[in-house]
Amino acid sequence: MLTPLIRAKGAALRVALQIARLRPPRAVTGDHGAVLDPRVAVMWKIASRANTPVSRLTPATARRETRDAILAVDPGRPSAVGVEQLTVDGEPGTGQRKARLYTPSGLRPGSAILIWFHQGGYVVGGLDESDTWCASLAKHGRVRVLNVDYRHAPEHPFPAYAEDGLGAYRWVQQHAESMGADPKRIAVGGASAGGNLAAGLSVRLRDGSLAPPAWQLLLFPMVDSLETGGSVQSQATCYPLDRPLLDWYNELSTPNAEDRSDLRISPLRASSLGGLPPTLVVTAGFDPLRDQGDAFADKIRADGGDVEHRRFDTLPHSCHVMASVVPVAENANMWICGRVRTAVGG
Known about the structure:
CATH superfamily of the largest domain: Alpha/Beta hydrolase fold, catalytic domain
Strand content: 15-25%
Helix content: 25-40%
CATH class of the largest domain: Alpha Beta
Radius of gyration: 19 Å
CATH architecture of the largest domain: 3-Layer(aba) Sandwich
Number of domains: 2
């Protein structure tokens, strides 16, 4: 889930950040005792002076502004990564979804493939907004990455996007070899809403007939759409995700409140998280979704699962797309890619 980083061009942001080095903003201390990275604090200050909050925009306008803001600070794809435009079949009767396959130079055939689901609250976001991240993940994680788009709300509310996740996984199982990957080494991952999609899919596959993923990567995941306490309350005014935007996403993506307890959208509510694939959960200190991501990792561990959890206390939600202007976020990204390489890289 992501609101626009700023409503200014990337060059203007970089100038503001250089000024901030000379005149640092007032420190922002979270409920967990950590201080927000000062560069993020500058971005927050700029965004607070912007126009209408994203949660008051139409979905079409929110999509356009989110895309423009992310691409304004996007450094572009790293070198030595091949990119192929694909379409993947959805579940019967749902049509096809667009996708991009990223293959790092020199990767051997028969290695793993990671299916990636982008952030955006199931309302905004897409392949372009997650393009550089996926290319970087492929290069530094030494793994094929399939960046899969899915249908967005409010045009296609729950369970459309969850079914698209299942359809993409089924398609990859059938076509992994043609992409140079091992069908027994399929990983899933996503950020925010995409992390929700991946986590819900893993619980579903554990209890279904398809072979489960080999590994999963969850960045700042929403795993309980019914949660209203904890950091959802204490971090309600955070940046770039705040409580009004979180509520807006939920209302558009899952308009039937009774659906929000479904394990495809609230996998933390499963009676057990045992039997899931080995999992890396990454959370951020300044994030309304922090506590539920932490709890998801804790529950996997308590239920006997294999999980690694890392919380970046000074960073906010979706900081992985801020790496070009926030060095600490770039360091976090490289740490994540290193863990991917260890787990499934080839």
